[in-house]
Amino acid sequence: MSKTRKAILSVVCSLSLVPAVVMAGTAPSPVLLDQGWDAAAREEVHHLSFGSRIVPYAWLLHLERSDSTELLRSDANLGGLGFIPTGASAANPDALPIGFSRTTDSDGEPWAGLTCAACHTGALSHQGQEVLIEGGAALIDFSAMELALTDAITATLGDAQKFSSFAARVQPSDEAALRAQLEQRLAYLQERQRMNSSATPYGHGRLDAFGQIFNTVAVELLGVPDNARPANAPVSFPFLWGAPHLDLVQWNGSAPNQAPGPLVQNVTTALAVYGTANLKDHSGTAGYSSSVELLNLGTLQDHFYHLQSPRWPDAVFGPLDETLRLSGETLYRDNCLQCHAFSDRTQADRELRATLVPLADIGTDATMARNFIDATAATGVLEGRHQMVLAGTSFGARASTVDLVVHAAIGATLRHPLDAVRASIESYHKVYSAQVSSNPEFYKARPLSGVWATAPYLHNGSVPNLHALLLPAEQRPASFGLGSRVFDPVKVGYVDDAGGDRFDTALAANGNGGHLYGTRLSEDERMALIEYLKGL
Question: What is the average pLDDT across 182-194?
């Protein structure tokens, strides 16, 4: 990002982040914690596109809900789906929620998409005050968002009044062409939903990211419908502070974090979140054309490297009990430190190692890890091509799906080598070298700085708060409500939302067992350890 661009954004964003005057009947502006970002960095992370294209931008602005004339994009509607409303700004002129982006394709068509912040920005509410958690786990309901969009398009096509109103706002000169475009995009979106079907609902705050990435490449981009596998292992959106400093990332520690690893990993994310790539047209060129915006990915990666964990806000949740914290520190060293090392948030260039815990030892639900290991697919047009695009062994008729995903990401990166180099240089930071297992039967443990802001717990979000996590597995809640941002500062997690989604631990991939560390503590010891965790 140029110095001029950064300066302009800094001024604009600093104005937009001044706390608003609280009018009668409105909620106060969220508390913004010091997490190492200035206003310009927040603005870019919240809205900078990395190549996601869901629908044409004008459609998102003007589509109505299927059951009313309320706009689909209204704060009330998208807020109910877990998105965090925010005001208009230079990068977000139409005041879309955090995580929505605007980008333009090669034909000059503006598109609406999602960016990192949609899934990796949290918010906690206590006594009417909301706290924004940058890089935290979002509470969006991804599946419900997709369904609301397809329902809105279906209703627009089927209701003459809705269609006429929509066409007048979007494309009044050629209603026939608009109808054809709506039908075509609807068919695409519905096929994605079928392709990623899951008997276990995701609900708020979860997504089977690997399952959807695998299907995007193996089914959509390769054009092989038989490669589809149920995306049925939803996991929580991970918190991102500290992640760029680790040697390994992903819940199962399956990705090395040395450059250019982060860029390739994030290209796969861009492709999976409604990005595009042409794997079929090789035509002698290096790599594959795609919608991925490599320079923007470099900018975003650099911002997340500098993101710090949030500190417990005494003014909102109440001060910490220092006597309890001192007792809790000893308990932490005895029960947690072996896997969860300390990390100094103020050390800008820290290098961190993840601890890989075998599935048999951790004992938590293994569905996500097993799906990753077991997934294979027909290679289609990639058969005979080098696995690393320009080198390596050649693909046979079938391959591990993750190898196909890596191939697609490398190919999309190589298509624009200068941008890839610039992005890698901008986001380059030293991390420890790590070898990735060819059979990653692990889940990753990492430093717990800011863990108080990352409920619900375990990789699949099956435990509602820290108190429950420190109970024996059979005493943890078998179900709990999820969807409200109301925070419990005592048990440290979301308050059970009786009117929201019910998380059912009896469903496949939702098991809440395992991670039995610290579960034999007395209640007093448990509360002391929780108090210590609040201060990390």
Answer: 98
